[in-house]
Every structure is written in C-alpha cells, then in structure tokens.
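Researcher: Please translate sequence to structure tokens.
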Amino acid sequence: MPAEHPLTFYTANTPNGQKVGIYLHEANLPHRQVVLDLNRGDQHRPDYLAINPNGKIPAIVDHAHGFTVFESGAILSYLSARHGHLHPAMPTEQWQVQQWLHFQIGGIGPMLGQLWWFLHASPHQNREAIQRYTKEALRLCGVADQRLAESAYLALNDYSIADIAAFPWLRTHAELQLDLSPYPRLRRWLEQIESRPAVQQALAAARLDPAEA
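Model: Translation complete:
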C-alpha cells in the first residue's frame, strides 16, 4: 500500500529534530510527522532501530524514492539536494554551505549539548565541565558573530540549511546561561530567523505531544 505522504519524519522536541522540521516547513514539503517519546524509549524500539540503527532522532523515510536517511545534517543535505529548496546552484556555494553546516554538526551541537547535560541532566555538579563547555560554547558564538560581520547569513548572503542547522541550538542560549550581549550580530540573526513564519510553524509542530502528532 502506498504511503499517504511522500515523507515520514521521525522527531522529538530537540534542536536536532527542530532543524529538520524547519526545513520541511520552509520547503513546504508534505510529510507525516511521528513524534517519539524519548523518555519512554521510543527511539529504541525495534521498528525504529530498523530506520535508524543508532537509536536517535531525527530520521526520514522518503517513500517516493524508497530511501531512509538519519542524522540531521545528512537529512538537511539530502532534502535540499533532492528538492532544490535552499540549495545553491554553484558548487562553490554548495561547499560554503556544507562547511558551515559541519561547523554546527562538529562544534555547536556537541559543545552546547554537553553544556546542557552538565547544567540540567547530570546528577552531580561538575564545575570544571560547566566552565569548559561554557567557554567553548561562547567561543563558537564569537566565531558565528564574526562570520555574520562578513555575511548576511552563516554560509552565504542568502538563508541556507547552515542557518537552519545552527539556529535551534543557538536559540537555547538563555537555558544554557550563555551571555550573548557581546555578540550583537548573532542576536540579530537569531531574531531574524525566529521571525520567519515557517520557523514558527516548525517549532510549534515540534511541541506536539507524541499522542497528538
């Protein structure tokens, strides 16, 4: 039986889930959203592990092409290349986007993720770890702020999947107790992206209870 929607999107209300949701709304791609309850362990069910053996969100199933993709950066690259939305025509610009996408994947996500863990999830107060990850998170904010002095957006002068990837992580600065007052360009960039209708729609969809999605 053919799928009702061409894409099924497995997600939860986390930055990595939000970034794929933002792209789907920006590109206006029809999809079925399946919200996993991570606390309940939905990501470890055998049916989901068949889609993503790493047991993490997000993942997509492209029913139209019989293809499954997991890892948020890979999904953004796949969707933009497949559908052409926010996909630059010039190879040099495509690689510019990719390097800033990987800046988020290899830097912003891991460092801010570790900071969140030690601030909010660890049963022990590890001051050294908090100081380490706060310092590195702020350094990365400074890199982004300096880049935004040279370019309207992170990769190019046009909005791209690199911005979509970084935004859900950097918008958590208050929760992570990061002072962005020294980074006015980054604060302006956050406000600019937050105001996009597709971004607001995606963030609202991410907040759906698993039973409602």
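Researcher: Any highlights?
Model: Helices lie at 15-26, 46-49, 72-83, 91-121, 127-150, 161-170, 184-194, 197-206.
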